[in-house]
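User: Hi! I'm a student and our assignment asks us to look at how structure tokens line up with a sequence. Could you show me two examples?

Assistant: Happy to help. In each example below, the sequence comes first and the structure tokens follow. Example one:
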Amino acid sequence: MTQTTEAQVPLTKAESGPESPKPPVSAAERTARRKALLEWIAVHALGVAAALFFVLPFVFVVLTSLMSDDQTLTRDLVPDTWEWGNYTKVFDTPGFLTWWKNTLLYAGAGTALTVASSIPVAYALAKFRFRGRNLSLMLVISMMMLPPQVIIIPMYLFWAKQLDLSGTLWPLIIPMAFGDAFSIFLLRQFLMTIPNEYIDAAKVDGCGDLRTLLKVVLPMAKPGIAAVALFQFFYAWNDYFGPQIYASENPGAWTLSYGLESFKGAHHTDWNLTMAATVLVMAPVIVVFFFAQKAFVEGVTLTGVKG
């Protein structure tokens, strides 16, 4: 066996000699480190304060929804006994499940119709060159600035008197099949970030405008479509004004946002049940946003196409 040479034997810490002393930290470096630490504390303190500002009201609602009837009238912040049965009582309220079904119909159908009708218009405004394109875009922007309350009287007369659809949600759902100004504008801004080379390459391969839109543009525009869909879903889910105008005379057509007002009036002293109903109304929106927040943020910031 070959013996290890003297050069190959590792030196111990004692044999290698004393370690070289570390250079002293200068006053400038100490100041820089202290400044960086203070900046880190300041930034995170503001972040924590902002988070508490938004989270604490929701925590208060949840805790109140789990209290007993007597404890809600006290100053206690934490339930003595966790009354999970409050949520069962809310679902047992006559009409609450009907409000859920109506809200799902309104939000689901309205979102699907808005996205399907807004995409072709946004694509034409973003990628087509035609006379009057800028004027069309200005009309879309002007519709965004028009409050719905301005035209509510003629719209109500049209849907209620001429079409006899008062007491239903169809006056709110059907118009969404003709596009939404905000959705069109947001999608148009996102589609502008898609390079025209992709569209030109698809047309060279023999794709028409419709096939190019379906096969090339839509897969690349998923973040923008997701943002538009979420905006429309949140709007329809929380809409109070529309159901109040068209469906108030028919309790069978109420949505959660409008029915919650009636629920609060019927349980004005039962704050635990009112808060439980509020949590059940808010929960779907929070869950949807939690799972779709990445696509939502990417679509809103209009990041465009990544290479």
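Example two works the same way, sequence first and then tokens:
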Amino acid sequence: MLKNIRQAAMAAALLGVAVVMPLSPAATAQTPPPAPVAAPAATPAPPVAAPAPAKAPEVLDNPYGLEAMWKGGDLVMRVTLAILVLMSMGSWYIIVTKLYEQYKMGRQAKDATKKFWKAPTVRQGADILKKSSPYRFIAESGIEATQKHDGLLGTVDLNDWISMSIQRAVDNIQARTQDGLAFLATVGSTAPFIGLFGTVWGIYHALTAIGIAGQASIDKVAGPVGEALIMTAIGLAVAVPAVLGYNWLVRRNKVAMDQVRSFGADVHAILLSTGRSPTKA
């Protein structure tokens, strides 16, 4: 009996050990791994819409401007604008013409320096120069003074008489070089005020029309007032070239007249040395 009880206890102990022990590596290797879980299918991205083409900037018609001002302006506005246009045309004509005349004087001064002083007599030297040359005019004035020094004029000293004749010739040449400069000075000083007058007249009529219509919005006020300011801009555009041209021409005239006066002084000295015979060497 006791022997049977011992055998049963040993069998129970062996059964517990078998349960507790882990599986062998061989058994583990035979166990298949779990199947991988399939990834969910990617959802396709929605199509990206193409960017809309950029719209060209809308060009607005400007109802205001120089053309609109001319068409819608009254007689005073049109006359004012016409005066400014004529002043501008006259200024540019004088500037171009005087520059050409000064260029000719420069060439004539070079001719006088090269040819006149190499002539044997004053008469022959004057004949070499062109008839339009101011240097020939001075030489001929001096020659005429020596030939007409008789009668009452003979009572005047020959030196003083020749000096006065040449000085009158120089003054005459200077007066010719000043032609047109007074117009430039007038345009430069009055054109801004004429343009300002046109602006004031335009603003007056614009505000009067707005007051009659009873509309005081910004588009009804800014447009006509801005259009009237065009006259001031035109006045300045006319005056600035006239002032610059005047100052430039006066400076160039001064340089040219210095050469003329030097030539006159030299001719005066030569005529005094030859006395009443400027045609003799």
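Here is something you could point out in your write-up. The chain has one domain: 75-274.
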